[in-house]
Amino acid sequence: MQHCLPEQLALAALREPLPDDDAFHLAACDLCRAEVASLRRAVEAVSVPELADPGPSVTPPPAVWGAIAAATGVTAAPAGMTAPVAAAPSAAAPSVGPSSEETPGGAQVLPFRTRRRGLVLVAAAAVAGAVLGAGVTAVVRSGESTEALTAVALDPLDDEQASGRAEVLVREDGSRALQVDLDAPALDGEYYELWLIEPQVVDMVPLGVLRPGSQTFELPAGLDLGEYPLVDVSVEPLDGDPTHSGISVARGELDT
Amino acid sequence: MGGLLVARPAPTSSVVVVPDDAMAAARGAVDPDDAEVGRRFAAGDEQALAWAYERWSGQVHGMAVRAFGPGPDAEDVTQQTFIAAWTGRARFRPGESPLPAWLVGICRHKIADAWGRRERQRRETDAAMSQAQAAPLGGSGPGIDSVVADRVLVLDELDRLGQPQRGIIELAFFADLTHAQIAERTGIPLGTVKSHIRRTLERLRSRLEGDGAALPA
Ligand SMILES: [Zn+2]
What we know:
The complex is a heterodimer.
Chain A: H1 6-13, H2 20-28, H3 30-46, H4 62-72, H5 122-126, E1 147-156, E2 163-170, E3 176-183, E4 190-197, E5 204-210, E6 213-218, E7 230-237, E8 248-253
Antiparallel strand pairs in A: 1-2, 1-8, 2-3, 3-6, 4-5, 4-7, 7-8
Helix pairs in contact in A: 1-3
Chain B: H1 20-27, H2 34-42, H3 46-68, H4 72-87, H5 99-130, H6 144-160, H7 165-174, H8 179-186, H9 190-211
Helix pairs in contact in B: 2-3, 3-4, 3-5, 4-5, 5-6, 7-9, 8-9
The site of zinc ion has 6 residues of chain A, from helix 3.
């Protein structure tokens, strides 16, 4: 009896129906069936619904582009990216200096309420010593009675020249502030902005305009720093667009 | 931050300085067609990445969401796809395939890679949980993880195929077309389609049997 043609066996491996003669032979011939099985291994590996040609289109969240722009350093932006990125509805315009943004997600439990677990200065020790400068210690400022709870180095992204340090300060009345020391070149026609971003880089809270040097930003009451642990410094064009430009120059992660 | 945007000195009190004007002027009044976006992408024109994202991120993200559901895993795949496409643009041949097809191909890799990572994590967790005392001999049996590894190998081999072989086998694998439909779609004679399919499946088989048998854990 004549075996199936190699081309027919390949089609059988793709699960195409064969002409009757071939189908009958294949059902009875171990040799031909073994051939089909060996060719089918590749088919089964990739011919799965998840890898099939694109189906319904799904618009990715805006922050996906932000991450791509940050990773590639590309400054052009898709047209759709003018839509608001930040979750904070009050982010109508970048505010200067200490800001009073509202909490985006309503009331949340403050992780710092049960503070004093040994003054958590951990992150600092673990990250890039180079930019930490004078080291991070618990600071009690006379007069204001302020404690530093956690601090983080802001490391330059890619080959950017910006770096620095951010420190969460908690006052006696429980209010919090983020003190930032930024070492970065002065900008012309653009400005630095400070953000708190969640780990998936989707939602973010704008804290305000930042300049090289040392500044303190008020943290919104109720904001869970555990949900927004990334301290991010972006470069924003003066275009009136309140959303993150996608260009980040330094970033650190708070260890809360 | 070399030359991010055209920086014009502006008094802080002035209302608007719109650097976007410069970009809008540079890109011309009309957006280019898909083929032109592909050519500019290959040439490293940053605006082409933005256009590609505008036009095809929905397709790519749709695939990622289909594989992982909405959320961080899918977003990571989409993000990685565009980043890899941009950094690997030297390998993109605008004359050989449309840019969206190339992006979709990269997306398949990223999905397969993510499955591979999950599989490794699962094995590590299993190994850690199974025994603390006996040295794990790494002999992961056949099963899910061998399919995961096969997948990576096959996708990799597909990248090495020239045209029209690659287009033909992708229509069979990913568009679920029969050889007759492929011939009709591509205008390539039926017999030629069949022999390309045969040769490509043989090639994939040798790749799998050649270095797919024993993979590093
Ligand atoms: Zn036979």
